[in-house]
Amino acid sequence: MSDDVVARGNQARAVMDNPIVAEALTSMQRRAHEAWEASSYEDTPGREEAYRMLRAIKTFRSEFEMMIRDGAVAKAMEKPTNE
User: Fold this and answer.
1) Higher pLDDT, residue 1 or 64
2) Cα dist from 17 to 3, 11, 42, whole Å
3) What is the 3-state secondary structure (H, E, C) of the chain?
4) What is the biggest distance separating any 2 CA atoms in the chain, rounded to whole angstroms?
5) What per-residue confidence (pLDDT) applies to 68?
6) Are 16 and 22 contacting, i.e. CB atoms less than 8 angstroms apart?
7) Which residue in 3, 11, 9 sits closest to 71, CA to CA?
8) 64 near 12, Cβ under 8 Å?
9) 26 near 54, Cβ under 8 Å?
10) What is the average pLDDT across 61-81?
């Protein structure tokens, strides 16, 4: 089980360390923020869509960060202790 968690953590780290993924997420976040900021008072659906996009990006990052942390914990628990 912990081998799977470690492997998933390593895969998640590889995804988040990929410059193309980082660039895409940053670009998506910037565009969503700009859309939200530029929306008019009457454009409630547009603001809500931009908000949903920002939340989705944050959730995406959080899921990967959780996998990375879980992998690191699982790897640390695999190491034998010196007693």
Assistant:
1) 64
2) 21, 10, 39
3) CHHHHHHHHHHHHHHHHCHHHHHHHHHHHHHHHHHHHHCCCCCHHHHHHHHHHHHHHHHHHHHHHHHHHHHHHHHHHHCCCCC
4) 67
5) 97
6) yes
7) 9
8) yes
9) no
10) 90
